[in-house]
Amino acid sequence: MPVWTPTTPNPTPTEVDNSYATTLTTLHAPGNPVVFANIYDPASAAALLSLNSGSASPVKAVATASYAIAASLGIADEDLSLEQNFAAIAKIAPLVRAAGLPLTADLQDGYGARLVDAIEKAVALGVVGANIEDSYPEKGFARGLECLRSIEEQVERIKLARKTAEAAGVKDFDQREDGHFQIGTAPRWLVAKDGAGRGCKTRKGVLGSWGNMRFRMGRQPERGKSRKSKS
């Protein structure tokens, strides 16, 4: 695996390459979760990539964080525009590719009606996976279900994202999603197991999506069933 250092001159422009998406997907192994260190600029990328030296390669993949990118600009996460996010990703992507690693990007909610544009831009930069939240950033994050898209809407958005990525040359585009939970109901990923979670590994030919984290109060319900939570 090539090793990137701060002295690497003019990293080769990234190319659309589905093999990086395949690599990223294979890292999601049940019982052996992949750990992503989030980066937000070339300096944080350099610090992370420098850990892979000689025979040691602890960093298997890289992920950007919209919150951190926004913070570096002195703004709130929900105020980060598509253009600002991609300006940062464009500086990071060549460095990660030069190191021979897959890059997944935090695309917030996919930027509303600009979801297709966001995915096309991401793939063009060499991104092979993305986090697309099921929230409405403009509504904030403290109003319960009012902040979340319906399960049906989010499933369709994930389908559209994967279809767009495939058309752009990355058929194995790896989608992750921030987790949300409701007390007293089945987790959203379980209710929409064909939509927003590769909690169902077969996917039934529909989607490939991973969750950053999922919380459940009480016992884990059986597949396809829900239980009342116990506090």
TrEMBL record:
GO molecular function, one term: catalytic activity
Taxonomy, superkingdom: Eukaryota
Chain ranges passing through the membrane: none
Name of this protein: Phosphoenolpyruvate phosphomutase
Organism: Lyophyllum shimeji (Hon-shimeji)
